[in-house]
Each structure stands twice: as C-alpha cells, then as structure tokens.
Design brief:
This protein has 278 residues and is an alpha/beta fold. It has helices at residues 49-56, 83-89, 101-104, 111-122, 127-140, 146-150, 159-171, 189-206, 217-223, 241-246, 251-258, 265-277, and strands at residues 5-16, 23-34, 38-42, 65-73, 76-77, 94-97, 177-181, 209-214, 226-231, 234-240. Helix 5 (127-140) crosses helix 7 (159-171).
Amino acid sequence: MENDVLLEVTDLNIEFHDHIIPETVVFDFDLTLKQGEIVGLVGESGSGKSMSALAIAGLLSRKDMKKRGRIFYDGKDLLTISRNELRSIQGNDISMIFQEPLTSLNPVKRIYDQVEEPLRIHTDLSKEQRYEKVLKILTEVELDDPEHVMRQYPHELSGGMRQRVMIATAMIMEPKILIADEPTTALDVTIQSQIVKLLKKLNARKKTSILFISHDLSLVRTLCERVLVMKDGYIVESGPVERVFTNPTEEYTKKLIAAIPKIDPELIYHNERDTDSK
C-alpha cells in the first residue's frame, strides 16, 4: 500500500443469507482513499453504495451475511480483526454520518451529552477538558451560540443544525476517515450547499479523508476529487470527477449526468455570497 493511502478495499463482495436464497448486493468493489482526499460514491437507491460504506465502517452484522475481499486500514483487515480491535477504530479513526440525524440522535439526551460521548469512551480527558473540546467542535461546525445548543434536545433544532451536530459528533475524535452517507438528502438546497461547504472546510483544516455517498451528482462534482459510479452492486465507472462528468464512458453514467437539473452557476455563486455576507 502506498504511504499516503489510508484505506484500500479490494474485491469486496457482500452476500445476504437472511432469505431462502442468498442474495449478493455488492460485487468486486475496489476503492483506495488517500490522506486528505475526498472521493464520491454515487448511484441510485439499491446500487450497493451504502452497503459498501457500512462494510468499510464495520457496521454490517457478522451474522446473516457473508463478506469476501479485504478492507485494509492501518495494516489491518477490518473484515477479519477482532470485535475489540474494530471498536477501537470505529468512531476513533473512522467515523460515519447518516442521512437523517433525527433517527441517529437520542431524543431524550441533550446535545452536549451526545457530542461528548466519544470522548468519554475513547479518552481520559477531565470533565473540563471534554467541555472545552465539545464547545470547540460545535464552533468549528459553525453552529450559532454553541453553548445554548449544548443544552438543547434534538427536536429543538432545525434539520441543518442537527446535521451539524452529527458532523461534530463524528469529528470530535479527529478521525482520519469520515464516511458521509447521503448527509444532505433530507435538507433543502440552501442548507445542502452549506453542509457541503462545511465538509470542504473540515477537510482542508484537518486533512480528514472523506468518502461522500450521494445520488446527487451536482453535490459530488462540487465536493469531490474522484468519483465511483455504482449500479446493481457493481462499480461501472470511476475516475477524476471532471473527467467522468465531461467525458463519461458508460451509458449509465451518461444518463445520471443528463438527469442533473441545469442550474445557472452564477445564480448559485451570488446566493452563496448573499448567505456568507449575512
């Protein structure tokens, strides 16, 4: 593995055994993720992109399914290491954020307790040190009045604020890899743009590698350097974002690109300038 390659997935196959007939949902999936790189994984619902991401994050059950291939991180195969080793990597080195934070956040716990939890699990920091780190990360994800947000419950926050809290929770241990699974789907277009800009800033500031999963190719083009296109469990095309968008080779990729709504870039630019100036 090259020195700057953080993660290398080769020949990943995922087969479910919870039906009478086993069903393969991911075939021969390959991915390399370098330090500080942002890679997009796109495809329609059921294409296998989220299953691949969950396997990388170690969040797929070890029962009722069979996984073949290798997921190498830090010299270890995440498919075969012990549960204890995997737990030490999850949330610490590899973190994940999901599409709908309201279902991921605990409705009866205050925001502070939820963002602080990884620090309680993975560190020996004092109560005061944990408080300072929570305040710092909530500030970094650009939440207004973070001390007030800490005391609130998830239902008291807007969708965009909840997603920022989820990003803060995922980033508080300063992981080397952040997996973002459709993190903007439940948000309106303006908030989507803000979340993508935030992920870009965190990547630049902390050199966190990001695997960004989406069916929205326009967001992938804005955020990512490389892209993998999935269909029916297979990667059908991959390469630098601009090459794939300007000169796609596969018919499926061409259809996905043709379906992107045509929006005037100048309009987006001016809207973002207006938002930033407020």
